[in-house]
Design a protein that fits this description.
Number of domains: 2
Distance between the termini: 33 Å
Radius of gyration: 15 Å
Largest sheet: none
């Protein structure tokens, strides 16, 4: 039951055309025996964060990569959407 609920809800979230990169990378990450699933899962997460942030208008359009997106989400100018401890690993 959990697998059905999570599986269907997850893929439904990725059904929109603008989420092609996330969908492709997640399929690659979930491919049993595929190359480097961690890399593809991280790449899918990065794309999802960028898409959500852009849709919510949390970005300044000056970000050039994942690190700058996270810095913007942590910054006080953006209202501190992320705590500083959440922004860095």
């Amino acid at each position: 039951m959990v697998a059905e609920t999570v599986h269907d809800s997850f893929w439904d979230l990725l059904a929109d055309e603008g989420r092609d990169n996330v969908r492709t990378d997640m399929r690659q990450a979930l491919d049993v025996g595929g190359p480097n699933p961690t890399f593809y899962a991280a790449r899918a997460l990065e794309s999802a964060v960028k898409i959500l942030s852009a849709v919510r208008r949390w970005l300044t359009d000056r970000e050039r990569g994942a690190a700058q997106v996270i810095d913007t989400l942590v910054s006080r100018k953006s209202g501190g959407l992320l705590a500083p401890s959440e922004g860095r690993c």
